[in-house]
UniProtKB/TrEMBL annotation, chain A:
SUPFAM superfamilies: Periplasmic binding protein-like II (SSF53850)
Record's protein name: ABC transporter substrate-binding protein
Residues annotated as signal peptide: 1-27
InterPro entries to which the protein is assigned, alphabetical: SBP (IPR006059), YnjB (IPR027020)
Organism: Franzmannia qiaohouensis
PANTHER family referenced in this protein's UniProt entry, alphabetically: PROTEIN YNJB
Keyword Signal applies: yes
Gene3D superfamilies given in the database record: Periplasmic binding protein-like II (3.40.190.10)
Pfam families: SBP_bac_8 (PF13416)
The keyword Signal appears for this protein: yes
From TrEMBL, chain B:
Keywords: Cell inner membrane, Cell membrane, Membrane, Transmembrane, Transmembrane helix, Transport
Location in the cell: Cell inner membrane; Cell membrane
Predominant subcellular localization, coarse grouping: membrane
Name this polypeptide is given: ABC transporter permease subunit
Domain ABC transmembrane type-1: from-to ranges: 54-269, 354-546
SUPFAM superfamilies, alphabetized: MetI-like
Recorded family membership: Belongs to the binding-protein-dependent transport system permease family.
Length: 408, 564
């Protein structure tokens, strides 16, 4: 037993030696030459900054760490965040202090506004993601969600990891028939005051709810996918505010308080305080039932209009110290084995970004064999996926929401 | 060497805080080149002023700073007055350390689960007593007035103020004063309030100030129990610092300075209140009333502290129950099924953080104890004892980290550290913890040290011992009990640190507390139960050692076992 351990110690000290020996060690690796990237990654320690509020996510990341240690001799360390923006702050503080080469953050689990910010402020390394060996499995030419993160062009600066879609879930023991649209939800709330709420804006789930409502209620949704023009805002969003003004007094605590995030929302559901909630994960209800957090009478549903969906990605900061290692990990995360393991609700239940048509039959079978759980809608019942509007709209919506409902 | 100790302490504490504040002040006035802020301007302040609900945030922070402190102090003083020498007194004294070792966040989660409409109390009362089949739609936790926030803070500040009062009481000879007053016909509680409090208060004034500063700027408790639309100022600042829109950093920095202002304003108002109370109190003390209110005061003194202690303990018990709960639907008083699953899932992940926590906490505590002992020994040998409770002593700078809100200087401090090229390591985290451990170790150690009868050392010196010999072989062994208590307090403070660990460690130094708070963002109450219990048990271990070790070592010397 002692032999492998000492080998490990030796391997761990190698990169240090390499760093001392060769002055070129800090030059950015070239993803086009994959073999050299894998070589360079060997022995690196990759610090992966990822939100850690979900035990199942953390367990999956640990599982990944065990695999990449075995295969690529990479030590993957999960830096646990309660908010992804903490990682963005860290990179910013490093830039502010002139640390352009030895950054602490090697890889971030990111999407949407955080990505838009980092891209706009030149805080990202790349392009690299389109050269990953597993990238073609996402069928990027036919899957715009891989190339556009909330309508912002990805430009090879981040590699897709998970796809998610908003779903509602409700307790069948308390609700006979669930609403199928925002107006129906409003009617239902009139009959059942205090039984529904959503996460507080600007939490991403809160943003998703008001964006979903706007997509359902606005006359013209095309305009939401362009950068927002100040003069359009009032007219386009007027139906949303009329809807929310009527809905809020009917919410849990009469809309005077909101849960902070999706997990608090789930807890309210588990405690029986509300009977309809929403989530950004199609398998959340099944996973929570297995975890005793929700009663087994909970089921998921979607609105007829379609539901907002998006992807989350891996990005590498411009000053990351272990870029090669981060790329190898990102590529491994895209492998069919890792993606299928992730999709199993007993493991995590986060949907794959791979296009199943592109896979070999063996790999495809991994996905077909997964039991999605009792409260999860099968893929063909999830309905249409609505794209995320441009971040400028979401920002403006969140700001207007706060101006309207905070401090009243 | 010894002469340097006070200055070293001052530099260690003041330098980082001033540097951190400066780095927060620059962006607050528009200067932050990394984000394209090259010129000074007042725009961040204008942006701050237009934030919805800002006035309310500020008001809640300000009021919770004052109200929490007033209530906690009143409960502690009434208890000491009413229960001195009773069985309740002994029980509470024994409970102080365990109560102090419950981390703030854990106590807050416990309270939230206790009082929520779907919480433990409602479950016990339902449906038989209340008739509730479903949780009532009542806004209790996160109420817009911050009442539950203040309740949560009061529960945690009472043990702190009590410990500080008990330490200070030793030098007041309260029993003799009360006996004297009683011989003049005063009832015991009234007597205590009239003859002991006026001398006690100046001795615990600085800890009281620390409570005001803490309560007006706390982050974790306010996130769990505080209002949400809008949240308290400190929580808002954290959200702005974490906003994906980086231009909000300017406004966040301005907010950090505003927080400093709010805390200072709360301190100044307290100062004003002190004057009013002093004037009114003088009339009451000198009035000669010997009986009136005795019974009510006595009852309140015992009942209030019992309520607070019981709330904290039942809250923790509720968390413990949660950590073992399977299915647990409202309105069941107890879970329908129990499971070890939550513990089994968490245990493999516990090892690393627990080891890191203990390593960081013990190093920071040892460093702090070394510095504090050096400073105190220097004070003894040079024969200069700063007047207690006066704000003028040089070592008063010790309290700076307790008075300046963490959120106001820590973000700036990270930039300073980056600019100095220091890598986030355990040592940097230990250094950050030292900022907060030092003052508390000093607070708990100084009284015993200064009270120590100087004749013991003198005897040793006349017998030919060197000053160092007298220190190592006489003074230190005789002060073992208070020394261990101070170390236990230091450990508890270090273990509870969240922001400094996260920011200075770049998140790469996982401790039990950072893991617990990260998981808490997931809101799974069962897992929170597991981590909160682990988080609470580590400092408790320290307190058990602090009480147990002197008894083991000095089985044959009763006077040196320390007073429980």
């Amino acid at each position: 037993m002692s032999l492998p351990r000492s080998c490990h110690a030796l391997a761990a000290s190698l990169p240090l030696l390499a760093l001392l020996a060769s002055p070129t060690a800090l030059a950015a690796p070239d993803p086009g030459d994959w073999q050299s990237v894998v070589e360079e990654a060997r022995g690196q320690t990759v610090y992966w900054y990822a939100w850690a509020g979900e035990e199942r996510t953390n367990d999956y990341i640990q599982w990944t760490a065990d695999r990449v240690a075995e295969r690529y001799d990479i030590e993957l360390v999960h830096v646990k965040l309660s908010d992804t923006a903490e990682a963005v702050s860290r990179v910013l503080a490093e830039k502010q202090a002139g640390n352009d080469e030895r950054g602490n953050v090697d890889m971030i689990w990111i999407n949407g506004e955080n990505f838009a910010t980092m891209k706009a402020n030149d805080l990202l390394f790349g392009p690299w993601s389109e050269q990953l060996p597993h990238y073609p499995l996402t069928d990027p030419d036919n899957t715009p969600a891989v190339r556009y993160d909330w309508t912002i062009p990805v430009d090879g600066l981040e590699s897709p990891w998970s796809s998610s879609q908003v779903v509602f879930y409700y307790d069948t023991a308390l609700v006979d028939s669930h609403p199928r649209s925002m107006p129906e939800l409003l009617d239902w709330a009139h009959d059942n005051p205090g039984e529904f709420t959503y996460a507080r804006v600007p939490n991403f789930l809160g943003n998703a709810f008001i964006t979903q409502a706007l997509l359902e209620l606005a006359d013209d949704t095309e305009i939401l996918y362009e950068p927002m023009q100040e003069e359009d805002f009032e007219a386009v969003t007027a139906p949303l505010w009329a809807f929310l003004d009527e809905l809020h007094p009917l919410l849990w605590r009469s809309g005077r308080a909101f849960p902070g995030n999706s997990s608090e929302l789930r807890r309210l559901m588990g405690d029986g305080e509300i009977s309809i909630a929403l989530s950004f994960s199609t398998t959340e209800a099944s996973g929570a039932i297995a975890n005793f957090e929700l009663p087994d009478s909970v089921r998921s549903y979607v609105h007829d209009h379609g539901m907002i969906g998006n992807m989350s990605f891996m990005a590498i900061p411009y000053n990351a110290q272990h870029k090669a290692g981060a790329m190898v990990v990102a590529n491994y995360l895209l492998s069919p084995a890792a993606q299928a393991h992730k999709q199993d609700p007993l493991v995590w239940g986060s949907n794959t970004v791979l296009s199943l048509e592109t896979l070999e039959p063996d790999d495809r079978a991994r996905f077909d064999d997964i039991d999605l759980g009792i409260a999860t809608l099968p893929p063909d019942e999830l309905g249409e996926v609505l794209g995320q509007p441009h971040p400028s709209w979401v920002d403006a919506l969140a700001e207007a929401w706060q101006a309207r409902y905070v401090g009243r | 060497m010894l002469r340097l100790a006070p200055w070293l302490i001052a530099a260690l504490l003041v330098g980082p805080i001033l540097a951190g504040l400066a780095m927060a002040a620059l962006p607050a006035f528009g200067y932050l080149p990394a984000l394209g802020g090259d010129a000074f301007s007042l725009d961040p302040w204008r942006a701050l002023m237009t934030q919805p609900g800002l006035a309310r945030s500020v008001a809640i922070s300000f009021i919770s700073g004052l109200a929490t402190t007033a209530v906690s102090l009143a409960v502690v003083l009434l208890f000491l007055a009413a229960a001195s020498g009773s069985r309740l007194d002994r029980w509470i004294r024994r409970m102080v350390s365990p109560l102090l070792s419950i981390p703030h966040a854990a106590a807050a989660f416990g309270l939230a689960f206790l009082i929520a409409p779907s919480g433990l109390l409602a479950r016990f009362a339902s449906p038989a007593l209340s008739g509730w089949e479903r949780p009532p739609d009542l806004l209790i936790v996160n109420d817009p007035w911050g009442l539950s926030l203040m309740a949560g803070l009061v529960i945690k500040e009472i043990p702190f103020l009590l410990l500080m009062s008990l330490a200070a009481l030793h030098q007041l000879d309260a029993e003799r004063r009360v006996a004297m007053a009683r011989s003049l016909g005063y009832r015991p509680t009234i007597a205590w309030l009239k003859v002991v409090v006026p001398s006690l208060y100046p001795l615990i004034r600085l800890p009281v100030f620390a409570v005001i500063a803490y309560a007006s700027s706390v982050v974790d408790v306010a996130m769990i129990l505080g209002p949400t639309l809008p949240p308290t100022l400190a929580v808002s600042i954290l959200t702005w610092f974490n906003d994906p829109d980086l231009s909000r950093r300017f406004m966040a920095s301005a907010g950090a300075l505003l927080q400093l202002g709010v805390t200072l304003a709360a301190l100044a108002s307290w100062w004003g209140l002190e004057c009013v109370v002093r004037r009114l109190g003088r009339g009451w003390v000198a009035g000669g009333q010997r009986q009136r209110g005795e019974r009510a005061l006595r009852l309140a003194g015992k009942a209030l502290i019992l309520l607070a202690a019981a709330t904290a303990l039942v809250g923790i018990a509720g968390l413990a129950l949660n950590s073992l709960a399977g299915v647990w639907r409202f309105p069941d008083g107890l879970p329908q099924t129990f499971t070890l699953q939550h513990w089994q899932r968490a245990l493999p992940a516990l090892g690393g953080p627990v080891a890191a926590t203990l390593m960081i906490a013990s190093t920071a505590t040892l460093l702090a104890v070394g510095l504090v002992l050096a400073a105190l020994e220097h004070e003894q040998r040079s024969g200069r004892q700063p007047a207690q409770g006066r704000l003028t002593s040089a070592l008063t700078l010790l309290y700076l980290p307790l008075i300046v809100p963490q959120i106001a200087f820590l973000f700036g401090l990270v930039v300073v550290m980056e600019a100095l090229g220091t890598r986030p390591t355990r040592w940097l985290v230990i250094f950050g913890h030292l900022l907060f451990v030092l003052p508390y170790v000093f607070l708990s150690m100084s009284e015993a040290y200064r009270r120590f009868d100087p004749r013991w050392s003198r005897v040793a010196l006349t017998l030919g011992a060197t000053p160092n010999g007298a220190f190592w072989r006489v003074r230190l062994p005789m002060l073992l009990a208070p020394l261990l208590t101070a170390m236990a307090v230091g450990l508890a403070v270090s273990i509870g640190q969240y922001l400094p660990t996260l920011l200075l460690g770049a998140g790469r130094v996982p401790t039990v507390t950072t893991e617990a708070v990260a998981l808490a963002s997931g809101g799974n109450r069962r897992l929170i139960g597991v981590w909160a219990l682990v988080q609470a048990s580590l400092p408790l271990l320290g307190f058990i050692i602090a009480v147990g070790l002197p008894r083991l070592l000095w089985t044959n010397r009763r006077g040196m076992r320390g007073t429980p």
